Amino acid sequence: MSKPPAEIPEExxxxxxxxxxxxxxxxxPVVAALGGAGYGGYExxxxxxxxxxxxxxxxxxxxxRERVADLSELTESWxxxxxxxxxxPAIVLRLPGPIxxxxxxxxxxxxxxxxxxxxxxxxxxxxxxxxxxxxxFNYRSEVPALVCACHLSVFAPDRGGRAVSGPAVLPLPRVExxxxxxxxxxTGIEVS
Length: 192
What we know:
four-stranded antiparallel β-sheet; alpha+beta
């Protein structure tokens, strides 16, 4: 039997409300997917094209002077000595050429950097093997680099600690060095 005519519009009203709800509900995953894709695109652009260059004239915040290493510990290019400076893990390197914020003494070039990755604050280490850097960090380099194993960021010491690969965007802060009687001292940390 058929329903009385008075009940048909009410039943259609229920179906119309459900239909309107469903037409809005399908939009939620579409908007979420578009938002996620947009954010992913933004992050990809930022990580690949927005890496900040180190300041060519670094400004150092003075700290109490601390002994870092004897020059005799750094006799060849890419020799490194890790140290603590005001409770900050750092590393001093002998580089093949001068960099801004580094120290040149009797034809030898030295630079020191914070070992705290600028991405998520893991410790970076010096990798002297360009093949290992290419394989493990997906970055081709002809020279050693400071690498962060946590999220695969790579920093170029010969370019002032610039982030060259991975999610890190900011360069490693440099540590100010002084030389006295064959000993390197740390005297300040770079401020951004």
